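Lab meeting minutes (informal)
Scribe: AK
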Amino acid sequence: MHTTLTHDPVVETRPAVAYIGTRRTVTMTTMGVIADRIGDLVGHVLEHGAVPAGPPFLRYEVIDMERDLVVEAGVPVEGDVPVGDDVYAGTLPAGRYVTTVHHGHPDELVGATGDLLAWAASQGLEFDMSESPDGDRWVSRVENYLTNPVEEPDMTRWDTELAFKLKD
């Protein structure tokens, strides 16, 4: 099988992760509307004297690739960070996740995601998601952005972790 994955997938158990976030309904062509909020969220954490407790992420809640996607931008935090307006506190659930790291341009993540989904199916793994008229509803399907774009502006050198929760 040809794959765009740059690291072998693994199954691991993860703890719950507290975060602050914001949500938008977007399409594949308007994904920047939510992705661009990551910098605002990091700034919000820093403005309130806190430090991010992990990499920023996008969490895909509802996916219909032909229509709309409901996506959260988030930043893990420890302790209380004030929320308000469209910024809220949330928790990524604990549990078993399939993970891999993709090295390369974010435009390649659609292919890497497809390859990760195919790998999981070949292993008989079942994701914690359900089908609905609005699209596939995921309990936790996350892209963690491991590379700081200020330190590495070349997007072809970025590392992005894919972490998709499995059914218990």
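Next up, CB showed the second protein from the same session:
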Amino acid sequence: MNSVSPDELLKNHGLKNTKQRQLVLEELAKTKSALSQPELEKTLGKVMDRVTLYRILSSFEEKGIVHSVLDLNGTTNYASCSKACTEGHHHDQHLHFNCTNCQKIYCLDVKIPNIKMPLGFKAININTTASGICSNCS
């Protein structure tokens, strides 16, 4: 997670500071693994509806606050971006690890090497996921 406060993070990315946005950022900061919208709904469902949560996550991804990664079941999970990410430009391409036991997804500090795309192709996002047993389950 960014070491910047939620207030500053929202301001730096041109988003209005709302209680709902603050709560989502706080939930993401509490865990070392990526969280799915259903997981966030379990803890935040009493203070915001599903549509509001979806819109917040979408705007956070668009602004470069979070990035998404699919788990083994095809569910989108969200994790905090690095400070280098900006609107429309995610600069923290790294390896994700999906534990086959606990189903959690972790961002690993393993950078994906620069991949030269064939002529005419422009990669917007490269996502690589390894699966196996995490350190908590082994």
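CB comment: The domain at 6-132 is CATH 1.10.10.10 (Arc Repressor Mutant, subunit A).
No objections, moving on.
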